[in-house]
Specification:
Elements lengths: L1 H4 L6 H33 L4 H49 L3 H6 L2 H26 L1 H16 L1 H8 L2 H38 L1 H6 L3 H53 L5 H42 L22 E8 L9 E8 L4 E6 L5 H7 L8 E6 L2 E2 L5 H6 L1 E4 L8 E2 H6 L7 H10 L3 H6 L7 E2 L8 H14 L4 E5 L7 H12 L4 E5 L3 H5 L3 E6 L2 E6 L1 H7 L1 H13 L10
Bound molecules: adenosine-5'-triphosphate (ATP).
Length: about 575
């Protein structure tokens, strides 16, 4: 909680002003019964009109001051709470940006979204309400007791007789409330996750006619959220009437003993009215307690969830050399006895992998699905650290290159083409913000997408929908390649990025890419692509099955030869009509 509350500190002055104004409002509220008592005892009972007019005027004036204080308090309270929420949300976002890829597996996406939205809003609301009304309720109870003792100590005693019960009830409410509401937020995470998965796979859901199944899946998690929220609220619903019961018994005692005191001339009617007034205000404040405690319990649970993210320390990308440059990266890559296991998975996915790729060379990586090809690629930009062995770029361990410089030198085209909402221009410039129009178009030409883009009505200004929904698979792949090429990377990592291209386009693409000076690592299933590489690395179940030029592997590797032969049979005869 300390970390989250440190974000409140910059707003200590607006908070102090808001609290001060709230105290003015509270003082007015506490003094009012005293004035009413005075009007009754010295004005009405004695028939003195001037007392009624004078103190009535004072009451009006005080009400006006309370109104002004309340309005100004709202201004400062919303400034402080909104600014706090903005700061903490930004801090959470920055922290998440620094997560290693491995840390993301510990914090599922839907959970992170809830933490950055619903959880932050929850704490923000409680901060606002605390400055507006929440702190007023306990202070009103305390102030009423003190004022009641000033008016008539004997009668006031009956107001505090139930205090031990009240404290016990409140304690139970807080304790149970926090744990129940923590569970409610977890349920909300689940609802978000199911919703997110469903929306992302909307076409699949329709194609597989899984709408009913998905609806029932959503209903199930939504129902769990409902049941746990009801459970959390129930504790409040039981305790609130108990609180009010204790207060009403106290009130009855005050009326009973008050009447006797008036009869025996030990108290005046105005005093009794004042104490009853304080008792009523206390009851009102207590009835707000359920709501306040519920909100606090919820905010505490939310603050703890935000704190979990803010306190991640081990799972952050560490780069002591951040912002520095260590010479120029030429792009020579060397794997030496690299073994790698994913976090939480003991079995290694890659074992004893060694190979060299000289600067400007092209290495084709082949192997069955799940052989570890994508994993191998991801180790170069350090999405994960090797378990043992080493990876060097230009002879220097990747761990020793400044992370920014290393990644700046890499153009990564992942297996799944991910595009962002925005124009085609914006998507290409994502690879290099300062790229000129010429550079962007040059990259698009190399990636064989320029002419397709030109055919769109709005050309490069065509808007790409979320994740590129309005583009074909092949268009997305080529745009992803262009985005990487814009960077003019020294190392180009292509993870099966041409699978959706037709033979002719793919051939033109490779022809254009071969003119690039970049070192290329190309995951491919196609012998045709491997043939054009300087060397081929054939993976089998995380181990190297064969390594050498295409010709060498044809001669030495049975597995490679089998793949080549199987693909030869499927090759399109050269006289076949051009499908394009
Ligand atoms: N984040 C992860 N956590 C744990 N295991 C993983 C993770 N990602 C992949 N794996 C496992 O690592 C192995 C290699 O996966 P990888 O994606 O590298 O294979 P691949 O050769 O690229 O396969 P494909 O050709 O199907 O893309 C698989 O057995 C996979 O289940």
């Amino acid at each position: 909680m300390k970390t989250v509350f440190s974000y409140v500190r910059p707003y200590k002055w607006p908070i102090a002003i808001a609290l001060f104004l709230m105290l003015i409002e509270l003082s007015v509220e506490l003094v009012q019964p005293l004035i009413i008592a005075k009007i009754i005892d010295d004005g009405i009972m004695k028939g003195d009109q001037s007392v009624i007019w004078t103190w009535g005027g004072v009451m009006m004036l005080m009400a006006f001051v309370a109104f002004l204080s309340g309005a100004t308090n709202s201004f400062f309270a919303s400034h402080a709470s909104q600014s706090f929420a903005f700061d903490v949300r930004s801090a959470l976002f920055k922290q998440v940006q620094q997560f290693t890829v491995a840390t993301f597996t510990k914090f599922p996406t839907a959970g992170l979204i809830t933490r950055l939205t619903s959880d932050v809003t929850m704490v923000q609301n409680v901060l606002f309400m605390s400055l507006r009304i929440m702190l007023r309720a306990p202070l009103l109870v305390l102030g009423s007791v003190i004022m009641a003792f000033i008016v008539n100590a004997y009668l006031a005693m009956f107001l505090v007789i139930g205090a031990p019960f009240l404290i016990i009830f409140l304690y139970i409410m807080v304790k149970k409330g926090v744990s129940y509401f923590a569970l409610v937020q977890v349920r909300l995470d689940r609802v978000n996750r199911v919703l997110q998965e469903n929306l992302q796979a909307v076409r699949l859901v329709k194609a597989y006619l899984r709408g009913t199944f998905e609806s029932s899946r959503f209903e199930k998690v939504s129902n769990l959220l409902k049941m746990d929220t009801v459970k959390a609220l129930r504790i409040m619903e039981i305790i609130l009437p108990l609180l009010l019961l204790v207060m009403n018994i106290s009130l009855l005692a005050v009326l009973w003993f008050g009447a006797r005191e008036i009869q025996s001339n030990n108290a005046q009617i105005g005093e009794l009215v004042a104490i009853v007034n304080y008792a009523m205000r206390m009851t009102g404040a207590f009835s707000m307690f359920a709501f306040i405690i519920m909100a606090f319990a919820r905010a505490k649970a939310s603050a703890e969830r935000m704190e979990e993210v803010l306190l991640v320390n081990e799972g952050l990308e560490r780069d002591d050399e951040s912002g520095k440059m260590h010479g120029i990266i030429k792009g020579e890559i060397n794997f030496k006895n690299v073994t790698f296991s994913y976090p939480n998975t003991p079995e290694p996915v890659l074992q004893n992998i060694s190979f060299d790729v000289k600067s400007g060379e092209k290495l084709a990586i082949m192997g069955a699905t799940g052989a570890g090809k994508s994993t191998l690629m991801q180790l170069i930009p350090r999405f994960f650290e090797v378990t043992s062995g080493s990876i060097t770029v230009d002879g220097k361990d990747v761990k020793n290159w400044p992370l920014d410089q290393l990644r700046q030198a890499i153009g990564l085209v992942p297996q799944q083409s991910l595009l962002f909402t925005g124009s085609i221009y914006q998507n290409l410039a994502w690879g290099k913000v300062e790229a000129s129009t010429d550079e962007l178009q040059q990259a698009a030409k190399q990636a064989q997408i320029h002419s397709s883009v030109e055919q769109f009505a709005k050309g490069y200004d065509t808007r790409v929908g979320q994740k590129g929904v309005n583009l074909s698979g092949g268009q997305k792949q080529r745009l992803s390649i262009a985005r990487a090429l814009v960077r003019k990377p020294e190392i180009l990592l292509l993870d099966d990025s041409t699978s959706a291209l037709d033979v002719k386009t793919e051939a033109s693409l490779w022809e254009a890419l071969d003119k690039e000076e970049a070192t290329m690592l190309v995951v491919t299933q196609k012998i045709r692509t491997a043939k054009g590489a300087d060397r081929v690395l054939l993976l089998d179940n995380g181990r190297i099955a064969a390594y050498g030029s295409h010709q060498e592997l044809i001669e030495t590797s049975d597995l490679y030869r089998q793949i080549a032969e199987s693909q030869q049979e499927q090759e399109v005869p050269s006289h076949a009509p051009d499908v394009n």
